[in-house]
Amino acid sequence: MNRLISWGEVRLGLRLIVKQPILSVTVILALATGICFATMGYTFREELVNGSLPYAAGDRFARIFALTREGARVDLDIERYQAIRERATSFEYVGAVAVRPFTLTHARAEVESIDGTQLTPGAMRWLDAVPLAGRAFVAEDGAPGAEPVVLIRESLWRRRYSADAALIGRAITVGGEPRIVVGVMPDSFLFPASGELWMPLEEATLRNTRGAVAGLRTFGVLRRDVAFETADAEVAQVVSPFPSSNDPDALARTLVRPFTADSDDSEIVASALVGVLVLLLLVVASNVATLVFARTWSRAPELAVRTALGANRARVVGQLFVETLLLGSVAAVIGLIAAHAALQYFRQAFADEGWPFWITLEPNPRVVFFVVLLTLLVSVVSGLLPALRVTRHNLRDSLQAGRGFAAGGFGRIGAVLLVLEIALSIALLNGAVTMARAFSSYVNEIPGLPQNRILTARLGRIRTPAERDRVVAAARALPGVVAAGAGQHLPRLYPPPRPTAIEPLGDEPVTGPRPAPGHAVGEGFLEAIGARAIAGRLLDATDFTPGAPPVAVVNEPFVAKFLGGRNPIGRRMRIDDRSSAERAWREIVGVVPDLGLSVGDPELTAGFYIPVRDETLWYLAIRTTADPLALTAALRAAVANVDTDLQLDDVRTLEEAGYEERVFLSAIAMSLTAMGGIALLLSIVGIYALLSFMVTRRTREIGIRVALGARPWQVLRSITAGAAAFLMVGGVLGTILGIIFAQARAVILISIPAPGFWMPATIFLTLAIAGLTACWLPARRALRIRPSEALAAD
Q1: How far, rounded to the nearest angstrom, does the alpha carbon of residue 725 sit from its chain's CA centroid?
Q2: Nearest in space to 109 (alpha carbons), one of 459, 475, 633, 461
Q3: Neighbour-count burial of 736, counting CB atoms closer than 10 A to its CB (0-12 exposed, 13-18 middle, 19+ buried)
Q4: With left for phi above 0 and alpha for psi between -120 and 50, is residue 128 left, alpha or beta?
Q5: For labeling, which of 240, 405, 669, 793 is most exposed (least CB within 10 Å)?
Q6: pLDDT, tens digit, 9 for 90 and up, residues 185-238
Q7: Average pLDDT of 239-255?
């Protein structure tokens, strides 16, 4: 029986690939680029969204959390935690964990802040915990009256205690309390994060606590035969008897999800990257299809000869498909190798930036299957379909008639491919650069702020506003401190927009509320971040006294957006929020410059600052006259004097605040820009190849027109007019798609500017120049050929 594809066909395909090196290399590099980025994106998404913990029962670990009526994700309160633990039968174990810094006191009263974990001790048996020395937690460590114990990490053991084995059984002071070190865990043990000590969550403490505990996360281990959906339904039933209310912050539903799906942000970012990758793959597919179509039609005489010698259509189609499959196989190997190298680079580069410990970025069978499937799919689309299209015509008649590219019917398909490629390239690069600009804006400096003279920290375990005020007072008393204060957010770590309205005066039109980020601050915070009043005044001590009239300080963009640049001092604004207290009219008493309240989207830089006294403020800001980091030790000691259990987390200058998030966003910005640049480069190459080929195949037509008396400029105009029409249609469609793509910024939880006109216009102009050049150069060459030679061509 004759085989459709023989080894001889494979050898012939390899020879033909080598015979056309430039076209073959272009196709391989285009496919390899798409496969590389697709593999990276797929791997990222799998590990961020569908990963599992590296334990024997890792795929059964579940995160149990709640949603408020407004959709905010919050941790469970103790009552619901206890109900699930006692009554839910879907779990083999239910526990709780809290990650926070701890104050570790050494000899000579030296204070050090150590990231650590409080953990229900029974969880250790599910974590495959094998200590380097001593023992892990046992259930009795959480029993009432149990001896206070602690586990430390190998890095802390070596760094502070010189790996002294005698430390086991001795006490160290954690949070002002002596605790016995019962074991040393290896550095490879990271649950739930890369802290350096673990303390047991005492059952008595949990039973005697009411309400929600900040940072306390509930998790469980499913039974082997229970699905997450089943556990989700059971948990919802278990907590249903708990009272609810009409408060928007009240818990509306309790959910059970895989433990590694810990953050909605990761899924949003992964989905955004996958969306960009899909567009990139479409650009690559259209580019490859364009090149393969051109390559196939250029071989029409050869295919006609094979047909004349007796080869049937299936044999010809099979040969063409084999060649494309060989190209795709080589591209797949190169793409996989490049993706693996890039993923390992990312893993090493960002190993210390707070990435979840279960993300390994290692290839897995699903990724390999995805790449193989992608290669076959692209090979079918870009190889088999063009082959079927070309061989649909009578090749022998085409050979005898000398018909070329356009006469074979490829003109319409070429036009569609050209328009599609232009549109997708403009859409991808416009959306990618728009998001990249927003991400990179988080790295830029904030004008007008002495960022390298401001020390910031996150306050942990602050119980009351009065305790917070004592911490601020202790910070102000340190030598070299100019000002100190607490705020709800730091510059660049922007608050969410809130509906804000301005009271109209006289005949001013009444306008509805518009979004503006509002920042709640404590006394001294604006001075601490270096704010200066350019009109009116800053907030003073009288604004924070009980019963004081409500006031606000706005920034310059707020004046421009809400008041059209008119004098704001004495005008009144209102936050149209759910709280009746917040809906009171506030007098505007001062104007400050744009202090990085919101970055990225210019529409959301217009914001305001309001004084609060009896609310929780999480961030501490201290402005100094010298190097602020030199105050770190003194600041920790001062806070410990207020309360040894208080914590300062992320102590760094304002310039470095949010560093991990900014590194991650910078990586995304670079990746998006690289993807867009590659898409643009591929499009330029593909458009040039297609248009150049189309013009070259019209050499005979050009010769006839010149022989009949056509002027060179008339010939050039007729050739470039068609290409210009294709470019114009593709440019308009791509611009529309790019704007739509960039509008999807609303799903990302950062501020992204609205897409402008200049970016798609620049991209379109670049592609138009490449396309017209691709028409002009071969046409000029054809015009230099004598009519007699042109008529003998093809």
Answers
A1: 37
A2: 633
A3: middle
A4: left
A5: 240
A6: 998 898 887 789 999 987 666 666 655 566 688 999 999 989 999 999 999 898
A7: 64
Q: How far is CA 170 from CA 119, 150, 550, 621, 689, in A?
A: 21, 10, 55, 37, 75
**Distance between CA atoms of residues 427 and 736, nearest Å:** 8
Q: What DSSP string describes 181-221? A: EEEEE-TT--SSSS-SEEEE--HHHHHT--SB-TTEEEEEE
The DSSP bridge pattern shows strands 111-119 and 171-174 to be unpaired
pLDDT tens-digit profile of 672-726? 677 767 767 777 776 676 666 666 666 677 777 777 777 877 777 777 776 777 7
Q: Is 721 exposed, middle or buried (0-12, 13-18, 19+ CB in 10 A)?
A: exposed
C-alpha 406/C-alpha 722 separation (Å) is 13
Q: Tokens 């499913």 identify what position?
A: 222
Q: Pick from 160, 156, 138: which is nearest to 147 by CA?
A: 138
Confidence of residue 426 (pLDDT cuts 50, 70, 90): confident
Residue 700 vs residue 402, higher pLDDT: 700
Pick from 693, 686, 706, 714: nearest CA to 775: 693
For 491-494, the CB contacts below 8 A with 24+ separation are 491/446, 491/449, 491/529, 491/595, 491/596, 491/597, 491/654, 491/657, 492/442, 492/446, 492/596, 492/599, 492/657, 492/658, 493/657, 493/658, 493/661, 494/596, 494/597, 494/598, 494/599, 494/604, 494/751
User: What does the alpha-carbon distance between residue 36 and residue 29 come to, in Å, rounded to a whole number?
Assistant: 10
pTM of the predicted structure, to 2 decimals: 0.62
Cα–chain center distance at 720:
41
Virtual torsion, Cα 207, 208, 210, 212, nearest 10 deg: -60
Using CA atoms, how far apart are residues 379 and 27, in angstroms rounded to an integer?
A: 11
Tokens found for residue 397:
């008649």
Residue type, 464: T
Question: 3-class secondary structure for 669-720?
Answer: HHHHHHHHHHHHHHHHHHHHHHHHHHHHCCHHHHHHHHHCCCCHHHHHHHHH
The separation between CA 79 and the C-alpha centre of its own chain, rounded to angstroms, equals 35
